[in-house]
Amino acid sequence: DSGVTQTPKHLITATGQRVTLRCSPRSGDLSVYWYQQSLDQGLQFLIQYYNGEERAKGNILERFSAQQFPDLHSELNLSSLELGDSALYFCASSVEQWNTEAFFGQGTRLTVV
Amino acid sequence: AQSVTQLGSHVSVSEGALVLLRCNYSSSVPPYLFWYVQYPNQGLQLLLKYTTGATLVKGINGFEAEFKKSETSFHLTKPSAHMSDAAEYFCAVSDRTGNTGKLIFGQGTTLQVKP
C-alpha cells in the first residue's frame, strides 16, 4: 500500500458526460501528480500541483482540469468525454516538488461507452 | 528534451534465470532515474532509484540497476527470476530541466516468467 488513495476504482460513463476523479496523497506529501495510462500512449503526465498551486502541465486536454484543495487532496475533472478518454488514470504524490520519486495510487479505470 | 527507451516490450525468462530489462535514456542534465513495477490491476510501485553517488543501486525484491553514463543506460537485473516477478516494468527519468517532479516513462516491458 503506497498510502495514496484514489476513488473510484472503476467508472463507466457515456460519451459527452463529465466525471470527477479523486485523490488523497500520502500523509505529509505536498505534491500531487496525475498520469494517464493507455495502450497506445503509455504513461503520460497530465499535471502537477504543489501545495495548492499548479506546478507543471503536460499534454492535458482543455476538456480536462484539476485542482488541489487546502487539505491537499486533488480532483481531476474530465468533461465532454470521448471514447478515446477511456484509460487508467493514476494519481501520485511526493514530498518535494522536483527531483524526487513519486508514490502511485491504484488508479481509476475509466471506461467511456 | 529528456526521454526513455525500453528495449523489448516483452521479455520471457525461465524461473531461476537471470532477468535483464534494458533502459536507455536521453538527458541534457545529469539524470535522476527510476524503475517502477506494475502488477496486474495495481498501481506502480517503486523498485529503485538513482540520483547521485554509487552507480549500482539495489532495490526491493532482489532487483538492482547500474547507471552507466557512457552508455546512457540504466538496465534492471535480478540474478534469479521468481514466478512472482511477472509484471510490467517501467523505467523513468525525472524532468530536471523544468524544475518539476514530472516523470517521463518508457513504454514498459512485460516480464513473463516460465516455470
- Apparent shape of chain A: globular
* Sheet with most strands of chain A: 7 strands, mixed
Strand content of chain A: over 45%
| Fraction of residues in H or I helices of chain B | under 10%
Radius of gyration of chain B: 14 Å
Give the low-confidence spans of chain B: none
Number of strands of chain B: 11
Contiguous uncertain segments of 5+ residues of chain A: none
The overall pLDDT average of chain B reads 94
What kind of sheet is the major sheet of chain B? Answer: 6 strands, mixed
Name the assembly state: heterodimer
Name the biggest interface. A-B, 27 and 26 residues
CA-to-CA gap between the ends of chain B? Answer: 41 Å
Q: What structural class should be given to the helix and strand makeup of chain A? A: mainly beta
Q: How many helical stretches of chain A?
A: 0
Kindly provide the radius of gyration of chain A, computed on alpha-carbon positions and rounded to a whole number of angstroms: 13 Å
The share of residues in extended strands of chain B comes to over 45%
Q: What is the ordering of alpha helices and beta strands of chain A? A: EEEEEEEEEEE
- The counted number of beta strands of chain A is 11
C-alpha geometry of chain B = globular
How is the topology of this model organized?
The complex is a heterodimer of chains A (113) and B (115).
Chain A: E1 5-7, E2 10-13, E3 19-24, E4 31-38, E5 42-50, E6 53-57, E7 64-68, E8 74-78, E9 87-94, E10 103-104, E11 108-112
Parallel strand pairs in A: 2-11
Antiparallel strand pairs in A: 1-3, 3-8, 4-5, 4-9, 5-6, 7-8, 9-10, 9-11
Chain B: E1 3-7, E2 10-14, E3 19-26, E4 33-38, E5 44-50, E6 56-58, E7 64-68, E8 73-78, E9 87-94, E10 103-105, E11 109-114
